[in-house]
Amino acid sequence: MNMWTRFKLRLPLDNRAQTNDMANMTQSSDTALDFLLTRRSRPAKLLTGPAPDREALKTLLTAAARTPDHGKLEPWRFVVLENAAMQRLSEAVAARGLALGLAEDAVEKARASWARAPLAVLVIASPKPSEKIPEIEQVLSAGAVCLALLNAALAAGWGANWLSGWASHDRMFVEGELGLAPHEFVAGVMHLGTASQTPPERPRPDLDAIVEYVAQ
Ligand SMILES: Cc1cc2nc3c(=O)[nH]c(=O)nc-3n(C[C@H](O)[C@H](O)[C@H](O)COP(=O)(O)O)c2cc1C
Alpha helices, DSSP H only, in 68-123? Predict the structure, then answer.
């Protein structure tokens, strides 16, 4: 921000003077940075109960909803599936898999994944009509919500895993069983629960291979 803009907005030279203590803390937090540098998902198949209750979940969803969203369109929403609902839906997943003619092991893998989940939050991408904000930006925002929810859950000490799977992309299943509108889709099936163990680290990207500096 240049001096003229600062003058027009009547902002002090040091923006930090206008923020509260909590915001200051957030702007510079070694703890948060350490978390981001070491965070990793816990495989859904290793998650057990307890899962976050509705009160604990409210904090996580509040953090997830605090996600960059161009135009404040809120092009996403949440469907919280508690354990009994996951078990009920696991039978619908299996029936749909069989109707689609999928291989038996693929059907069983999907059924078991839903049946054993202590809790899953579906992040639903729900793009809004807009002349200004392209749909791709709204979809990217939904993906960012998934990561924000994953990180909030991990930071709170829960085990969490961002999954998808064929059922989450099947229109018959998501519209018929999950109540999605035709223009909506599942951005993430976010499994939350208690992690019994920490998985070994997975290889991380080689930054030299994916970073390009443009100096001038
Ligand atoms: C959109 C999306 C869908 C995913 N779906 C699956 C899935 O169905 N099954 C799976 O094993 N991993 C899936 N993953 C990968 C895991 O969420 C995750 O990348 C992996 O467990 C490592 O996570 P970490 O970097 O937090 O350690 C998916 C990731 C994304 C971004």
Answer: 83-99, 104-115
Residue 16 in contact with ligand 1 by CB distance below 6 A: no
Ligand 1 touching residue 90 (CB < 6 A): no
pTM exceeds 0.85: yes
| Cβ of residue 109 lying under 6 Å from some atom of ligand 1 | no
pLDDT digits (tens, 9 = 90+) for 36-93: 999 999 999 999 999 999 999 999 999 999 999 999 999 999 999 999 999 999 999 9
In contact, 89 and 81? CB cutoff 8 Å: yes
The preferred substitution site among 121, 141, 163 for testing ligand 1, maximizing ligand atoms within 8 Å of CB, is: 163
Report domain 39-78+119-196's class. Answer: alpha beta
CA distances from 96 to 57, 80, 167, 186, 196 (A): 30, 21, 8, 17, 31
Q: Which distant-in-sequence residues (6+ apart) come within 8 Å of 32 by Cβ?
A: 26
**Each residue of 77-98: pLDDT tens digit?**
999 999 999 999 999 999 999 9
- Please state, in angstroms and rounded to a whole number, the distance separating the CA atoms of residues 136 and 129: 12
Domain boundaries, the chain: 39-78+119-196
